[in-house]
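Limitations

Structures in this collection are predictions, not experimental determinations, and the ligand pose is part of the prediction. Treat each record accordingly. The example that follows, with iron/sulfur cluster as the small molecule, is included so readers can see exactly what is and is not provided: the inputs are given verbatim, and the output is the predicted complex.
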Amino acid sequence: MALPWRYAYRVGMHIAKQKLKGNKKFPLVLELEPLFACNLACAGCGKIQHPHDVLKQRMPVEQAVAAVEECGAPVVSIAGGEPLMHPQIDQIVNELVKRKRFVVLCTNAMLVRRRLEKFDLKPSPYFSFAIHVDGLKERHDASVCKEGVFDEAVEAVKMLKERGFKVTTNSTFFNTDTPQTIIDVLDYLNDDLEVDEMMISPAYAYEKAPDQDHFLGVEETRELFRKVFADGRRKKWRLQHSPLFLDFLEGKVDFKCTAWGIPSYSLFGWQKPCYLLGDGYAKTYKELLESTDWDSYGRGNDPRCNNCMAHCGYEPSAVLATMGSLRQSLRTLTDM
Ligand code: SF4
Ligand code: SF4
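Predicted complex:
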């Protein structure tokens, strides 16, 4: 499945402009975390272990918009925590859409049906929801440690689609998954629920996550995705990733980590070096770029990176490799 042309064109133009300016490091997607609080407590989560005084903070709208403007990323993925617990989340979304940023609101769906009316959110080609769905009912409810969450997510997807919103999903896989559990959930999301696009990721082993036993190693990840993508399934699914990132997941190509391409901005500032590790914070994206020793991270450089195949480190590498090749660019626009 090809990436949406509007999105691919915008990201391509952004990269071309950065190269013309002579910038070697620049952001493609900003991971914005305007709060850490959440209404779930998933065992594999590395974001909700902050003390109470941090969990009750909400990022002001102006601060969120200023971070997006300073870094210039064309795509903003709003996560957390649970963004729908932020009372001004609609204002953040609308300010960014007004600036023609592609905004993705990542949610566990528990508040969609209850709170959507309270927010001023409207369908737009620049705005989509990304609903967290790790598996079919039993598997997803186990992943989020609460019964009924899968059913709520399904109802939320249906309601959002009925109201004309673009709806994507975000699925994280662990070593408790088999090729078949992944195939089953992606088939369901693609063919039955008919979401617009799907994002997939092997789970990253957060040091602070309560459950440390179920993260995938690199070879396990490659073997798993090779089996999942076999028999033409990869072409059939509407996956929201560049073809080279999917090649990377199944071990056909390898890349160096380029975590500066998907930086993370939270209540603490710009996280070093990425969304997954926490080696300090910078006040600006510029300071993040200049004060981080990027060569000391990535597989083979830092033991904490050795099992990482997460999109925040490697999707920018895949996108940059795509833009450097006419054949890969055409592949992105036409087929997988
Ligand atoms: S829903 Fe997301 S933010 Fe909330 S606990 Fe689960 S993984 Fe963490
Ligand atoms: S490999 Fe890159 S993205 Fe992954 S944890 Fe290390 S620095 Fe972060």
